[in-house]
């Protein structure tokens, strides 16, 4: 049976609590990380870029029904994501750069990683959008293939984990969002027999949680937690 996690408080946990939650559960959900002004600014910028992407005026997109790259640049069959937010051709690149490099998110990242500004290496910054048709991602770990044997899976997970952590990944919600589904604690162990036997798009896995996010919430997670995405066509 799936459970849902919801939060309403805006208090950011202490650095030690953030790290403990990430180590134990594989994710940490922070409510109301964005201010109302930040949320409004990002909503406007993302709406403009998404409109351009759906119209074929922005070629850097994630297209249906593909989960993994490469993606074609033609939005004919619909999109579920927009890429390259910091590209200089994007009129709102400065808005996205401010959200990416600003203290709001970076403060949490530095707490999780116990790192300073000069120790960070920034990678991908992309936008997931309401798909043009029902769309789901399969259960996966980002850096461990689904066909990995249990011993290899454990070895890869151990190699990827560090103390302090060496990698931070996050989802930042601009609207109410229920797309991220995780299996808490799975980042630190091999899959169970039931998880291995489950179908790629299995609706229910024992202990899974739907991470329910409100506008402005942020969830940081280990990219090797067992997770999937379920995108509702009625969401913005």
Please explain how this structure is put together:
The chain has 236 residues and is of the alpha+beta class. The protein has one domain (15-231): q2cbj1_9rhob like domain (Jelly Rolls). Helix content is 28%, strand content 16%. A five-stranded mixed beta sheet has the order 1-9-8-11-6, with no helix packed on it. It has a three-stranded antiparallel beta sheet with strand order 2-10-7. The protein is globular and about 45 Å long.
What is the molecular shape?
globular
Rounded to the nearest angstrom, the distance between the terminal CA atoms is: 27 Å
Instruction: Please tell me the total number of domains.
Output: 1
* Fourth-level CATH superfamily: q2cbj1_9rhob like domain
Kindly provide the name of the CATH class: Mainly Beta
Mean pLDDT: 92
**CATH topology label:** Jelly Rolls
Quaternary organisation: single chain
What is the compact description of this entry?
The strands form three sheets. Strands 1-9-8-11-6 form a five-stranded mixed beta sheet, with no helix packed on it. It has six helices and eleven strands.
Helices and strands, with pairings:
Blueprint: E1 3-5, H1 15-25, E2 27-30, H2 36-54, E3 61-63, E4 79-82, H3 93-101, H4 103-113, E5 127-128, E6 135-136, H5 150-160, E7 169-172, E8 180-182, H6 193-197, E9 209-211, E10 218-221, E11 227-231
Parallel strand pairs: 1-9
Antiparallel strand pairs: 2-10, 3-4, 4-5, 6-11, 7-10, 8-9, 8-11
Helix pairs in contact: 1-4
Keywords: Dioxygenase, Oxidoreductase
Protein name: Putative phytanoyl-dioxygenase protein
Organism: Botryosphaeria parva (strain UCR-NP2)
